[in-house]
Design a protein that fits this description.
Order of helices and strands: HH
Number of helices: 2
Number of strands: 0
Strand content: under 5%
Helix content: over 70%
Largest sheet: none
Number of domains: 1
Shape: elongated
């Protein structure tokens, strides 16, 4: 599932960056800016969650 979060987060970040260059490029409409910003921030949050959960999973020591 963590890989799916990473892929989805990456897709949202890419979509947000494309949105800033095409849709919200003139910053005249606040709604466009907020929507594209929300997409970008959501993608970043999903990437951080995915990376953090992978790191926590691998950092735990194993005892035998």
């Amino acid at each position: 599932m963590k890989d799916k979060l990473l892929w989805l987060g990456s897709l949202l970040v890419l979509t947000g960056l494309i949105g800033f260059t095409t849709v919200a490029d003139d910053l005249r409409h606040v709604g466009e800016f907020l929507t594209v910003s929300t997409i970008l921030v959501t993608g970043i949050v999903l990437i951080v969650i995915s990376i953090r959960s992978k790191r926590v999973k691998h950092d735990s020591p194993t005892f035998r």
